[in-house]
Write a structure and sequence with these properties.
- This protein is an alpha/beta fold.
- The chain has nine helices and 14 strands.
- Helix 7 crosses helix 8.
- The longest helix is centred in the middle third of the chain and has 19 residues.
Length: 330
């Protein structure tokens, strides 16, 4: 790959990103196959592999049996680091640890008291994080990134600006507290946002680029994925429909309110799929029957698949996305 007039450091990063993408495409390619995937010469690919091996990101795969001398094959070393996701709810916390390819290493759940003050809740969250890391056999220093999900409006620096669900939770600097416990920055986002991310990754909205997630369980909220990216709004408050009564999706709602609230949001956002959490079979049938005719384009309406794990898994996906941006940064 040539960058006319560009400096050598940019060229190195471009070549490294190309080889990493070739490795992440799957399988165990030979040097020749990987060079073809990356669009690079064999010598350049070999140099990049040597650098990646020195960083622990690539290993040689076991030779395949066959005639003659087998070609050396390579694979991405996903166990070179780990990511962690924390989902904090009113009554529970879930912690998930995975390698750099997203393969689960451990999970841990713990019960929380709904009325616990912030200090007690945070202490329980830190204990759950330590337990999950111990189960995975992963040291804090091996974490490349961490994410956390919480009810409420979350600022860019990880502070809970507003929360209607947990007493005293507004004002908690969650990113700073967890970052101090883990010895690294922690990405923090709203629970419905991260649940939307999780359902797109491993749940009812797999592969969809435009997703509306409706949380109608212990509290109400929405998460939006638009064009494959989370939509947080100007100040992180996008989807916080639960903070105002009379909007159709705030507090306990009858079927009519749910139908019109979801239809209105679907008309505004034009999603490929609407994922609803906390609705029973009867309500899901009602939503499918009545919301679709109100939309101007076809929309799938699906029940959420990930349950109480959604927020923690979304936080894990947030952390993994951060790792991938760093790996492929040019």
């Amino acid at each position: 790959m040539n960058v006319p007039g560009g400096d050598s450091s940019v060229l190195r990063r471009l070549n490294t990103a190309a080889v990493l993408r070739g490795l992440r495409d799957g399988g165990e390619p030979t040097l020749t196959e990987l060079a073809a995937r990356a669009g690079l010469s064999r010598p350049t690919t070999e140099d990049v592999l040597a650098d990646l091996a020195g960083r622990g990101l690539v290993t040689a795969a076991a030779a395949r049996q066959g005639r003659g001398r087998p070609a050396r094959r390579y694979r991405f070393h996903a166990a070179a680091g780990h990511a962690l996701g924390v989902g904090i709810g009113a009554a529970h916390v879930g912690v998930f640890v995975a390698d750099l390819a997203g393969e689960a290493a451990a999970r841990h759940h713990a019960v929380l008291g709904h009325g616990w003050p912030p200090a007690e809740r945070l202490a329980a969250v830190r204990t759950a994080v330590r337990a999950a890391l111990a189960k995975a056999g992963v040291e804090r220093s091996a974490l490349w990134a961490a994410g956390a999900g919480t009810p409420g409006v979350v600022t860019a620096d990880g502070r809970v600006a507003r929360c209607e669900v947990l007493p005293g939770w507004a004002g908690v600097e969650l990113g700073r507290v967890l970052g101090r416990a883990l010895g690294r920055p922690v990405l923090v986002d709203n629970d419905a946002n991260l649940a939307a991310l999780a359902e797109r990754w491993a749940g009812a909205a797999r592969g969809a680029d435009d997703v509306l997630y409706v949380l109608a369980g212990e509290h109400t909220g929405m998460g939006v994925v638009a064009g494959g990216r989370l939509h947080r709004g100007r100040s992180g408050a996008a989807g916080e429909v639960g903070v105002r009564p009379g909007l159709g999706l705030s507090g306990p709602a009858d079927d009519d309110a749910m139908v019109h609230g979801i239809a209105g949001a679907a008309l505004a956002l034009d999603p490929e799929v609407v994922v609803v959490a906390g609705a029973g079979d009867r309500l899901m049938e009602t939503l499918r029957r009545r919301v679709r005719p109100l939309c101007v384009t076809p929309v799938r309406i699906e029940a959420a698949e990930l349950g109480a794990d959604a927020v923690g898994l979304g936080a894990l996906r947030l952390a993994l996305d951060h790792v991938e941006r760093d790996l492929f940064r040019v």
